Amino acid sequence: QELEKLGLRDDVELHVYEVPVEYQTVQRLIPALWKKHSPQLVVHVGVSGMATTVTLEKCGHNVGYKGLDNCRFCPGSQCCVEGGPECIDSIIDMDTVCKRVSALGLDVAVTISKDAGRYLCDFTYYTSLYQSRGRSAFVHVPPLGKPYSAQQLGRALQAIVEEMLDLLEHSGDKINCQHEH
């Protein structure tokens, strides 16, 4: 919500959606949003009660979903996409984004992770990565006030998304996505 208030640079059209913590809704909504907007990039943001930093997730995982969602549902197959690859990496170089945003001195610690948790955040991320052939990102943030304010998180997310877009725009043909479906 704070990022929506702040916005991004003028040449970027920002669409913000709240995604329910429901496996079946994610499986319907994420492909529909990709189809509706055909975005250059989708950045998902999720709150993690365990996070103490703003965490850039490198990849999404297909299997291991055993936790019940807000509708008390869990996929019988315990996976996102039957027959899909075990892990899909984002085409965004999260290490570079982390270094660049950390160098801005925003008073927000930014770190990297390779495990978004095998719950709805990871499920959403994998679904989006699969749909987009890697043109997605996921950022975990700590709960408000623990330790960052909404304003601090909003500024950090703004910087993160702008760095991701900058990387995409300046990579041109250098990105060679290997995600075949």
TrEMBL record:
Reactions that this protein is recorded to catalyse: Release of an N-terminal pyroglutamyl group from a polypeptide, the second amino acid generally not being Pro
Pfam annotation, one family: Peptidase_C15
Subcellular location(s) of the protein: Cytoplasm
Any GO molecular function: pyroglutamyl-peptidase activity
Keyword Cell membrane part of the UniProt annotation: no
Transmembrane segments: none
Active-site residues annotated for this sequence: E57, C121
UniProt KW keywords: Cytoplasm, Hydrolase, Protease, Thiol protease
CDD domains registered for this protein in UniProt: Peptidase_C15
Keyword Protease part of the UniProt annotation: yes
GO BP terms: proteolysis
An example Gene Ontology CC term for this record: cytosol
Entry EC number(s): 3.4.19.3
InterPro entries hit by this protein: Peptidase_C15, Peptidase_C15-like, Peptidase_C15-like_sf, PGPEP1_Cys_AS, PGPEP1_Glu_AS
Purpose: Removes 5-oxoproline from various penultimate amino acid residues except L-proline.
Family membership: Belongs to the peptidase C15 family.
Subunit structure: Monomer.
Protein name, entry field: Pyroglutamyl-peptidase I
Gene, per the UniProt record: Pgpep1_1
